[in-house]
Design brief:
Elements (H helix, E strand, L loop, with lengths): L9 H9 L8 H11 L5 H8 L3 H9 L6 H15 L2 H14 L3 E10 L9 E9 L1 H9 L3 H17 L12 E2 L5 E3 L1
Antiparallel strand pairs: 1-2, 1-3, 1-4
Helix pairs in contact: 1-5, 2-4, 2-5, 3-4, 6-7
Length: 183
Amino acid sequence: MTTQDPKRGVVARVRESLFRGRAPVRSTTQTAHVLERKYGGNRQAIAAVYGVTPTTVGRWLKGTRTPQGDHADRLRAEATEVQTTERGREIRARQIERAEVGANAEVDRATTFEIRGSGAVRSSYVPLRLSADEVAALTRADSDAEAEKIIGEAMARYFNGGGGYAGFHWDDFGWAPEDFRLT
């Protein structure tokens, strides 16, 4: 299974790729959208989650201060999250299914603990070709666990298709969310 990155899990990374251009670019707009749509306008709540003061959140809104580092990454991910509603994801998934166009993806460091009976950990770059149905399923995914299963199934198909050993399952692999990307 993958390790969870609380700032940018698999679902956040997939949505950023599939819905590029949907979330606001300016940090002032990102802050306003996240504050209203996720935290109900409560500056104390967003400040507590980000580990800043409500005054800092106000500065982000005014544009007199810009979120940096982890705050900027998290804000971008949350802005994408609030922009990609369930209805919007469903519309995009249907478009992908109708077009019957899959996507290329890659996992930089996939590891497994048993390859042909060996207990050694081996790290491998895995190029994936996701079908239109798999991309649509990733678009609809609400949790990292759902997305990890879809990606794990594609990885198992990749390794099982190479001849020789054919017993891999979706949960036989370890990988980190930051090592997955749609290309």
